[in-house]
Write a structure and sequence with these properties.
Blueprint: E1 10-16, H1 31-41, E2 42-50, E3 58-69, H2 73-83, E4 87-90
Antiparallel strand pairs: 1-3, 1-4, 2-3
Length: 92
């Protein structure tokens, strides 16, 4: 992550990637920039958990996250607005 960086200085945007219904029509960030930025700074996760409510006995969910320094909060807000989903939180 960030070597020597206090954990309280780290911000993360995280979203469950299953909807884009709230996406704004007034994009303020270039999609090509978001693509390149996410290529270098983001993480996709697939979570498989035991869950007896499903016939297979497992549930599967996907997550997308970006972790940055707290000084980059405005950039995270723009990326959040671009995708139309997600939460920004400060790791403590």
């Amino acid at each position: 992550m960030f070597v020597g960086q206090p954990i309280s200085d780290i911000l993360m945007i995280s979203c469950i990637c299953n909807t884009n219904k709230n996406k704004s029509k007034n994009e303020t960030i270039d999609p090509n920039y978001v693509t390149g930025f996410c290529d270098g700074e983001s993480c996709f996760k697939i979570l498989v958990r035991k869950n007896s409510l499903y016939k297979s006995g497992y549930s599967v969910s996907t997550r997308f996250s970006i972790i940055l320094h707290k000084n980059d909060k405005e950039l995270l807000k723009k990326i959040q607005a671009f995708f139309g989903v997600g939460k920004i939180k400060i790791n403590k």
